[in-house]
Design goal:
87% of the residues lie in helices and 0% in strands. Helix 5 (53-79) crosses helix 6. It has 6 helices and no strands.
C-alpha cells in the first residue's frame, strides 16, 4: 500500500501510466489484486477452519443458494425463461 501511495504521487510515474496501453494497465492491476489476496489467504489458520467446519459451510453455501434462487426467479420474471434455464444461470 505504501508503494502504491509513493508511485501515485511521483510525477514521472503518472506520465508512464498514461502512456501504457489500457490492457497492460488492467493486467498489472489484476496482478496486484491477486498478490494481495494470496497474502491474505496465507494467513488463514486451517486448524480453526477444521474446528468450525459447519460455520464455514454455512457462510459459503447459503449465499450461493440465495444467489442461485434470485437468478432463477428474476430470469423467469424478466426474461420469461423456464425454471431449468433460470437455475442454470445461477
Amino acid at each position: 500500500m505504501i508503494s502504491g501511495i509513493i508511485f501515485r504521487n511521483l510525477p514521472w510515474f503518472r506520465e508512464v501510466e498514461t502512456q501504457l496501453h489500457s490492457s497492460i494497465n488492467s493486467l498489472l492491476k489484476k496482478f496486484c489484486l491477486v498478490t494481495i489476496l494470496s497474502i491474505a489467504g496465507l494467513s488463514i489458520d486451517t486448524k480453526t477452519l477444521k474446528l468450525k467446519i459447519f460455520q464455514v459451510l454455512r457462510l459459503v453455501i447459503i449465499p450461493q443458494i440465495c444467489e442461485a434462487v434470485a437468478y432463477l426467479v428474476f430470469s423467469h420474471l424478466i426474461f420469461g425463461y423456464d425454471y431449468f434455464f433460470g437455475f442454470t444461470f445461477g
